[in-house]
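BUG: 3D viewer hangs when loading the predicted structure for this chain

Environment: internal workstation, default settings.
Expected: structure renders.
Actual: progress bar stalls at 90%.

Input used:
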Amino acid sequence: MALQIVHACVNCCACVEVCPNEAIYADTPHFLIDEAKCTECLGEYADPQCAAICPIECAIVNELGDPINPPGSLTGIPLEKLIELGLYKAAA
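Structure tokens produced before the viewer hung:
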């Protein structure tokens, strides 16, 4: 069980310092999470610390590929509005 940082990451570095397991490291084109070190902060915190501080929606995903901060969760913009504005594409 480990989280992943995906292409939406903008390399802001916010997550690096808050990871209690030092599982996050710089890589190209974006930061990555070492699967062997990531515990999703279970037993230590109520939420994964990387996702709690991440300012970018959909940048950190769980083992199923679901975003920890899904579209609209940080901005408060309803998903329907994001789709209408062309800022998010719904799955076909």
